[in-house]
């Protein structure tokens, strides 16, 4: 009997094998397919073109909004300004209506417009045997060659900074997908509405935060944790850069609404989808400058750990105890849909 893969990201070791076996790049590809890297980078002569593709599969409410921001984030964390978007919209047979299509298009247009992104094409269809809409975004951006940042750039001795806290996207998804159930469980309307609004405040976009970082200090690496949460994002940084990590769990800002909802449904916030957060590593001498720049903008940020050598491993400090930093190939939020 064939082995069935679980819901969520592919197992990291399987993905590494597949990438090594089946991907290639020509001389103009600066960053190609690689574990932990957020986007591809192509040399266009005077600058770099940054290219990203990512689907939205968990959310159904405001799916078009998610599609823009999740893809734009992955372009921005490379130091690039998101500029153009193609969008593939798959609508479920037997459920699709003109109103559904219009709503998704409107969401994409509104979110892209606020980021200055032009919608330049894509594909739309009603798809057989699909039970919910799926939107796949493709965003392209530009960056000067001296401003490019990669996940693989983390260096031993760097500070690890978390911007905006966790799990922003997870909190919004839980509140939107489980809204009626939360009411039945006695949750206050004010709480539910606030949690739902996490999509906008503190927001799942890290474009402003990422571009501010590269304009403020010499950044070694940036990564936006998405599926698998902060823990998976940190693991991806370590694996891409070939380094170790020491993360202080008590320093990680877990937003109260997210903590409450994760507790309610038995989810670990560290492994819950975390779009809206940003992980940055840089030399400690530049950390105060970056933290001050964020504070001036009213953006929450905190040093949560250090980059170690690869030989030292990846660790999570909980009080006085050290435990292995556990990645989450299957996002905790998948438990809500199983």
What are its keywords?
338 residues, alpha+beta, 60s Ribosomal Protein L30, Chain: A, Phosphoribosyl-aminoimidazole Synthetase, Chain A, domain 2, seven-stranded mixed β-sheet, six-stranded mixed β-sheet, 10 helices, 13 strands
Characterize the structure shown:
The protein has 338 residues and is of the alpha+beta class. The protein folds into two domains: 123 residues, PurM-like, N-terminal domain (60s Ribosomal Protein L30, Chain: A), CATH 3.30.1330.10; 186 residues, PurM-like C-terminal domain (Phosphoribosyl-aminoimidazole Synthetase, Chain A, domain 2, Alpha-Beta Complex). The chain has ten helices and 13 strands. It has a seven-stranded mixed beta sheet. A hairpin with an 8-residue loop joins strand 1 and strand 2. Helix 2 packs parallel to helix 7 and helix 4 crosses helix 6. The longest helix is centred in the N-terminal third of the chain and has 18 residues. It is globular and about 55 Å long.
Question: What's the quick description here?
Answer:
The chain has 338 residues and is of the alpha+beta class. 33% of the residues lie in helices and 25% in strands. It has 2 domains: 25-147, 60s Ribosomal Protein L30, Chain: A (2-Layer Sandwich); 151-336, Alpha-Beta Complex (Phosphoribosyl-aminoimidazole Synthetase, Chain A, domain 2).
């Amino acid at each position: 009997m064939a082995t069935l893969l679980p819901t969520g990201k592919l197992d990291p070791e399987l993905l590494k094998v597949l990438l090594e076996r089946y991907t290639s790049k020509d001389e103009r590809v600066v960053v190609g397919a690689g574990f932990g890297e957020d986007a591809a980078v192509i040399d266009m002569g005077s600058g770099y073109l940054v290219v990203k593709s990512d689907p939205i599969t968990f959310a159904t409410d405001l799916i078009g909004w998610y599609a823009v921001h999740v893809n734009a984030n992955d372009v921005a964390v490379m130091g690039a300004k998101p500029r153009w978007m193609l969008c593939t919209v798959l609508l479920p047979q037997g459920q699709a209506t003109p109103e559904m299509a219009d709503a998704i298009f409107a969401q994409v247009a509104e979110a892209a417009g606020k980021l200055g992104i032009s919608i330049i094409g894509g594909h739309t269809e009603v798809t057989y045997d699909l039970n919910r809409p799926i939107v796949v975004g493709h965003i392209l951006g530009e960056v000067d060659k001296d401003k490019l940042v990669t996940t693989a750039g983390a260096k031993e001795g760097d500070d690890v900074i978390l911007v905006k806290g966790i799990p922003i996207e997870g909190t919004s998804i839980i509140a939107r997908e489980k809204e009626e159930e939360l009411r039945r469980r006695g949750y206050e309307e004010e709480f539910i509405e606030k949690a739902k609004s996490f999509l906008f405040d503190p927001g799942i976009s890290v474009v402003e935060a990422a571009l501010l970082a590269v304009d403020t200090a010499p950044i070694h690496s940036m990564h936006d944790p998405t599926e698998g949460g902060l823990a998976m994002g940190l693991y991806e940084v370590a694996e891409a850069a070939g380094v170790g990590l020491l993360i202080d769990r008590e320093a990680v800002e877990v937003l109260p609404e997210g903590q409450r909802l994760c507790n309610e449904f038995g989810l670990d916030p560290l492994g819950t989808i975390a779009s809206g957060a940003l992980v940055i590593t840089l030399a400690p001498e530049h950390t105060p400058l970056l933290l001050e720049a964020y504070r001036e903008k009213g953006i929450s940020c905190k040093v949560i750990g250090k980059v170690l050598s690869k030989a030292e491993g990846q660790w999570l400090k909980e009080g006085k105890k050290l435990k292995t930093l556990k990645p989450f190939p299957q996002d905790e939020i998948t438990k809500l849909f199983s």
